[in-house]
């Protein structure tokens, strides 16, 4: 009997014994194609020799030196490689151990920035519904996934407010262009800022491409530009959460680069270390760093394992492989191929409402009725069935049940390693086809 407190206490999980490129092998020898990189993490696949070597070599030097006392060479080198490629204005990197920690740091840094510049009345935060920013209390307060928030609502931050997501499939009117919809959706931010009092808002946070709660949902063109304008107009800091969509997942190192928009604070994690070590980071605009440096002189925050040398060495190796092997090109090319193959197999499927995404970050939204976009009854718990069936088939995908105005909607997120080739694409579509055929046959029987 396992003594581990697993996430799902009633479920027996296979035990992962080995990683081989795009596959995970369990202790019984069964192979699983990792079509979601876990949760958009394993962008280089598993057991990459260059990353293994980098970790081993760093281990022989030093594995831990507290950042209160020391910097360390892999941390410095990783900061250089990130800032060299970062969106304009981002000049410093604050290292942490994961996505939630990055978001917590972003919120606290935004608050401290306003204290440093003498605007202590800026205490309010705005984020979007149908978003996920992490499970720690601050990050959860920002997130707009009502199912995740509900049990903890009484102990969440009271100053976090929400606006609608940019969700063209559900919210764009038929007679409206994408651009017009994007402006309308972004202008909700202005309305909310004015409603709360424009000089009381500290920051707005969003995922440029929504991941876990909506299944790879990109903003429409122009949306993020308008968001940036509104933040500038009212002196509000803009936080992009690229924990899932960043670090090459969309075919660009930073998803927001495609929209031509730079935030003031940018959070990354998953693909940064590709799962080889736990690591996250917060990229910080020069003006924020300068205000803190010239003000109190230190950021009043910190964690024991930040800037961990082994984690930084692993992430540095991951980023070098991506750069040296030109993997972002593969993300764009294979992403287009996977998308086309999914369109061909599921594009006219009665239960498939939308296939969307960017690069190798693809979402399939499942609906009970294609014409009305009616979501499946949440009681069916379709996402659990899809995950279970997929694991039986030897496929790791990331099905979710998001929240659509209080209702549950279903989607499947695909985020395979950047190294996939055409055989993996064929295997993903084939296995997913069998999974959905079987789950939908069951759903129909129940309906
Ligand atoms: N933000 C986003 C967009 C995420 O997808 C996640 C993780 N799914 C997080 C934050 C939290 O990251 P972590 O689980 O590493 O704390």
From TrEMBL:
Family annotation (InterPro entries): Aminotrans_3, Aminotrans_3_PPA_site, PyrdxlP-dep_Trfase, PyrdxlP-dep_Trfase_major, PyrdxlP-dep_Trfase_small
Source taxon at top rank: Bacteria
Translocase is among the record's keywords: no
Cofactor dependency: pyridoxal 5'-phosphate
Keywords: Aminotransferase, Pyridoxal phosphate, Transferase
SUPFAM superfamilies registered for this protein in UniProt: PLP-dependent transferases
Cellular component, GO annotation: cytosol
Gene Ontology MF annotations: pyridoxal phosphate binding; transaminase activity
Gene3D superfamilies listed in its UniProt record: Aspartate Aminotransferase, domain 1, Type I PLP-dependent aspartate aminotransferase-like (Major domain)
Pfam families: Aminotran_3
Similarity comment text for this entry: Belongs to the class-III pyridoxal-phosphate-dependent aminotransferase family.
Protein known as: Aspartate aminotransferase family protein
Naturally occurring in which organism (per UniProt): Oceanibaculum pacificum
């Amino acid at each position: 009997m396992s003594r581990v407190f697993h996430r799902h206490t009633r479920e027996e999980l296979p035990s992962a014994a080995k990683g081989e490129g795009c596959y995970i092998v369990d202790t019984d020898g069964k192979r699983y194609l990792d079509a979601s990189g876990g949760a958009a993490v394993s962008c280089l696949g598993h057991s990459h020799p260059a990353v293994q070597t980098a970790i081993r070599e760093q281990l022989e030097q030093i594995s831990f030196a507290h950042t209160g006392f020391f910097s360390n060479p892999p941390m410095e080198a990783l900061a250089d490689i990130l800032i060299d490629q970062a969106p304009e204005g981002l000049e410093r990197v604050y290292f942490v151990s994961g996505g939630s920690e990055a978001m917590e740091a972003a919120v606290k840094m935004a608050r401290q920035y306003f204290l440093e510049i003498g605007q202590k009345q800026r205490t309010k935060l705005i984020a979007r519904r149908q978003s996920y920013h992490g499970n720690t209390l601050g990050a959860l307060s920002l997130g707009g996934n009502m199912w995740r928030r509900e049990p903890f609502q009484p102990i969440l931050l009271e100053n976090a407010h929400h606006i609608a997501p940019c969700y063209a499939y559900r919210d764009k009117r038929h007679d409206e262009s994408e651009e017009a919809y994007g402006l309308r959706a972004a202008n909700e931010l202005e309305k909310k800022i004015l409603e709360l009092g424009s000089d009381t808002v500290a920051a707005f946070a969003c995922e440029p491409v929504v991941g876990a709660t909506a299944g790879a949902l990109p903003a429409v063109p122009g949306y993020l530009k308008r968001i940036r304008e509104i933040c500038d107009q009212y002196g509000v800091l803009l936080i992009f959460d690229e924990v899932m969509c960043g670090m090459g997942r969309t075919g660009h190192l930073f998803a927001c680069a495609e929209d031509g928009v730079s935030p003031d604070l940018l959070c990354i994690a998953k693909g940064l270390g590709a799962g080889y070590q736990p690591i996250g980071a917060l990229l910080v605009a020069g003006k924020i760093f300068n205000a803190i440096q010239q003000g109190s002189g230190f950021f009043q925050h910190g964690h024991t394992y930040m800037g961990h040398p082994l984690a930084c060495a692993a992430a540095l190796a991951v980023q070098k492989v991506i750069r040296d092997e030109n993997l972002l090109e593969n993300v764009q090319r294979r992403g287009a191929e996977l998308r086309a193959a999914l369109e061909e197999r599921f594009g006219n499927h009665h239960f498939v409402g939308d296939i969307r995404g960017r690069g190798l970050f693809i979402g399939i939204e499942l609906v009970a009725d294609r014409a009305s976009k009616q979501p499946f009854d949440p009681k069916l718990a379709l996402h659990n069935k899809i995950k279970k069936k997929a694991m039986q088939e030897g496929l790791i995908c990331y099905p979710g049940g998001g929240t659509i105005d209080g209702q549950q909607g279903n989607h499947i997120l695909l985020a395979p390693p950047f190294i996939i080739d055409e055989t993996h694409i064929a295997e993903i579509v084939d296995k997913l086809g069998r999974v959905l055929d079987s789950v939908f046959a069951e759903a129909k029987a129940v309906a």
